[in-house]
Automatic annotation (TrEMBL):
Signal peptide (UniProt feature, chain positions): 1-18
Species assigned in the record: Hebeloma cylindrosporum
A Gene Ontology molecular function term of the record: electron transfer activity
Region (Disordered): 144-169
Name of this chain's protein: Phytocyanin domain-containing protein
Record keywords, A-Z: Signal
Domain Phytocyanin: start-end pairs: 21-129
Classification via Gene3D superfamilies: Cupredoxins - blue copper proteins
Lineage: Eukaryota, Fungi, Dikarya, Basidiomycota, Agaricomycotina
InterPro entries in the record: Cupredoxin, Phytocyanin_dom, Ser-rich/MCO-related
Superkingdom, natural source: Eukaryota
Length: 200
């Protein structure tokens, strides 16, 4: 009995709770991810909360910040998720980090009326000393949006996106270390934005 209690105590101290990190997309009507960079452990969830206008969370590479990653596998993309100015419920899209040693790079793919990425709307998970967030953002703002999407695979995350009021559908983006994502209501929300005339 004493042995079982000791094992249970050891297991409970060894179990680490995964964190839920909230990142605001378009906070205060700005072209920002807030915070713009996070450090996450394996198992942590990053929940992107869309707060205004019409933005996306689109995976890229360090070398081509404003281009959807296509090699060695296609990057994940929330799609455009519009939010009305008077919205009382904010949609979310989430990823779960699988590998904390692999940096992940993201941008907003919106280009109306200007490229949000080239205005600095980029985000990083676990940037390194040699590939910093500041360098990534500078690359984006330097106009590196037409370069081909290449670079190392983003190994290290999985996730479940969900728009408020809809049931998430889980899908996977597989590759050599990939992001698992869940489906969002981005298509429906984009159509709804066109119908109500939300400013992109």
């Amino acid at each position: 009995m004493r042995f079982a209690a000791a094992v249970a105590a050891l297991l409970s101290t060894a179990t680490v709770q995964a964190a839920n990190i909230v990142v605001k997309v378009g906070a205060n009507s700005g072209l920002v991810f807030d915070p713009s960079s996070v450090t996450a452990a394996a198992g942590d969830t990053i929940s992107f909360q869309f707060q205004g206008k019409n933005h996306s969370v689109t995976q890229s590479t360090f070398a081509s910040p404003c281009v959807l990653q296509t090699t060695p596998s296609k990057g994940v993309d929330s799609g455009f998720i519009p939010v009305a100015a008077n919205a009382t419920s904010l949609p979310q899209w989430s990823i779960t980090v699988d590998n904390a040693t692999a940096p992940l790079w993201f941008f907003c793919a919106q280009t109306n009326p200007v490229s949000h990425c080239q205005k600095g709307m980029v985000f990083a998970v676990n940037p390194t000393a040699t590939k910093t967030f500041a360098q990534f953002q500078a690359n984006a703002m330097g106009g590196n949006s037409s370069a081909s999407a290449s670079g190392s695979p983003s190994s290290g995350a999985s996730g479940t996106p969900a728009a408020s009021g809809t049931a998430p559908a889980t899908t996977s983006a597989k590759g050599s270390g990939a992001l698992r994502i869940g489906g969002s209501a981005a298509g429906f929300l984009t159509a709804a934005a066109l119908l109500v005339g939300i400013d992109l």
